[in-house]
Amino acid sequence: MSTTIVAKPLTKAAFAPFGAVIEPYDEQEQTADNSYVINNGYATRHHAIAECELDGGNVGMSIFRAKKREVPIALSVMEYHPFGSQAFFSMNGQDYIVVVAPKGEPPQSAADLTVFYAKSHQGVQYDANVWHHPLLALDRDSDFLVIDRIHGEGNNCHELDINDWQVFVEIEGEQTSA
Questions:
Q1: Distances 71 to 6, 148, 162 between C-alpha atoms, Å
Q2: What is the pLDDT of residue 178?
Q3: How far is residue 68's CA from residue 78's CA, in Å, rounded to a whole number?
Q4: CB 3.0 to 4.6 Å from 19: which of 26, 53, 126, 152, for a disulfide?
Q5: What number of other Cβ atoms are within 10 A of residue 135's Cβ?
Q6: pLDDT digits (tens, 9 = 90+) for 99-118
Q7: Distance CA 153, CA 35 (A)
Q8: What span, in angstroms and rounded, lies between the C-alpha atoms of 130 and 127?
């Protein structure tokens, strides 16, 4: 039997249990401490939107090239990183799907998963130990800037095979499997 999950729009409030949404502060969130004019008035800094968690190792920046997922997309694996957070931001202006489950015990079924539809201008930062599916690029192959822990001691990527769950994601207005 398969399960269908409707992808929710990615918002800061809905994603907060899993990490941070990387996008500028809106007018209600802006304070003198988190948004201020710099560079002689030619830029505004939206400060500390997300903060890197790190347990040993170094923070590195990488580019992941995610292949376009053909519809239907079958979820295959969930993973988590115990020694640091991991941030992703689309470099090609492409929307994508984010699948997460809470920190801690491995997800047991599709009921433990939350699915978000991320717009091209939004990045995500998963907190350490948050279960997540690898990148799900839509429309075309896409590059993502990735900021995460590199060169540290210990296994920082634990995986759970979920191929047999047969979970499908529905995007409002169209059917997509994930």
A1: 15, 29, 18
A2: 46
A3: 18
A4: 126
A5: 19
A6: 999 999 999 999 999 999 99
A7: 36
A8: 6
Q: Is 71 helix (H, G, I), strand (E, B) or coil?
A: coil
Phi then psi dihedrals of residue 10, to 5 deg:
-75, 115
Place of tokens 């929710």: 8
What is the tens place of the pLDDT at every residue in 125-143?
Answer: 999 999 999 999 999 999 9
| Rounded (5°) CA angle 94-97-101 | 150
Neighbours of 142 (CB within 10 A): 22
pTM of the full structure:
0.90
Structure tokens at 150: 């590199």
Query: 24 Cβ partners below 8 Å, 6+ apart?
Result: 35, 44, 46, 49
Q: Which residue has the tokens 């759970």?
A: 160
Look up residue 15 and give its two tokens: 């994603």
Structure tokens at 59: 């923070």
